[in-house]
Amino acid sequence: YKVRIEDVSVWYGPKKAIKNVSLNVRDKSVTAFIGPSGCGKTTLLRCLNRMHELTPGARAEGKVIIDGINIYDKSIDPVIIRRRVGMVFQKPNPFPTMSIHDNVAAGLKLNGVRDKKLIRDVVEQSLVSAALWEEVKNDLDKPGMGLSGGQQQRLCLARALAMQPEILLMDEPTSALDPIASSKIEELVQ
Description:
The chain is of the alpha+beta class. It has a four-stranded antiparallel β-sheet with strand order 2-1-3-4, with helices on one face. It has a two-stranded parallel sheet with strand order 5-6. It is built from seven helices and six strands. α3 (100-110) packs across α4 (116-129) and α4 crosses α6.
C-alpha cells in the first residue's frame, strides 16, 4: 500500500473530531471519502499531509504511513511531507498578488528552482495537465484572481501538480463549480 492509516484520532482542543480511523490506500488509485457534513473527511485529509497541525489546539494520535515511513515520527519534517503530499482545497485559493504564471511557479521558486526555462516548462506542463493552458497561454502575466471560479480551481490544481507530488489530496474540489468546470477536474482525476 502507498498509504496506511492506522488508528488515527484527531482533536481540536478537547473536542474529538475523528476516532480510530484505519484505512489502506493503494498506489496509483483514486480513493473517495464519503459522508455527511462535519463527519471528519477534511480533518482526515489534512492529517495525510500534517496540515491540521497548522490549526492551534489540534493534535493527532495514531499512524499515517507513506511508503513504510510514519509521517508522524518526531524525526520527520512536516514541510517535506507537504512537498510529497499536495493538496487542493474546497475553495480556490490563488495567491492574490501573483500572476497566473507566478501562482504555478511559486512552489518551485520557494524550493530554490532558479532555471527560468525549467520553470517555464513546468508551468506550461502543469497548466496543460490541469486543462487550463489553452485558456490562459496568452495571459500568463495577468492576475490569477482575475480568472473565473472554475479556472481558479484549475490554477490551484496546476500549482499543486507543479510540485510533482506523489500523492494529491483534493477536498471537494468541484463543490463550488459549474458542471462544465466540474467535469474538467473530474476528467483530470481519471
